[in-house]
Amino acid sequence: MAGYAEIADHFRQQIKRGDLAPGDRLPTLREITETWSVSIATANRAYKTLRAEGLTQASSGAGTVVARPGSPTIAARVQTHAATGRALDPDETSRIVEVGVVGADETVAARMDVEPGTPVHVRRRVVSRGGVPVHLSSSYYSADVIEAVPELTEPVSTGGSRELAAERLGSPQARVLEEVTSRLATDPEKSALGLSGESVIVTQIVRTVYLADGRIVEVAVRVVGGSTVLRWSTAL
After folding, report:
1. Hey, is 108 helix, strand or coil?
2. Residue 86: phi, psi to the nearest 5?
3. pTM, whole model, 2 decimals?
4. What is the chain's mean pLDDT, rounded?
């Protein structure tokens, strides 16, 4: 007899492969009990596991459906890198669109604790899922981080920039401050994300990543379409 974990993993893999697309309905609990020869309690626990992972959600009149893709938190990225050596999911790709030195704007300067206009290094990239752009991310680094990780000045993906920087700087990543706001998209953002319309709303996530010794390793500004779901799961 199958356990709840096996049932949850069955649907987890179907969702990750794309066999079940966002909005698709999963079998009812009764159908699960009949197909898998388990109790309602076991079927319900399997579905609760999928909901807790953000893979499914309850839908009025449709039961349990596959949730829309979200923008992963940095914690999820760190866990993925630790488990697989990759910061991206298997169906995701990253394309570097800009690498260089810019003057820190007010958003970046305030979080790096420098004056606006101070030269900082930027790596801008578009991450796509299944070939479709999902977010535009700009990562900013101070001169001491670049000195430790000169690879960040190259227009190629390092496959885990923060992890590499933390290793070189001799202190592990410890915490992140994530600040979320909504605003109108700029023309370059609309072009990068394939968004159309005169006034397009996007969601901006500013992430300030601290090492265990208190140093800031990265300030990242991520922009996603306004309809993108942002999910956090916090232990209470």
Report:
1. helix
2. -120, 145
3. 0.72
4. 88
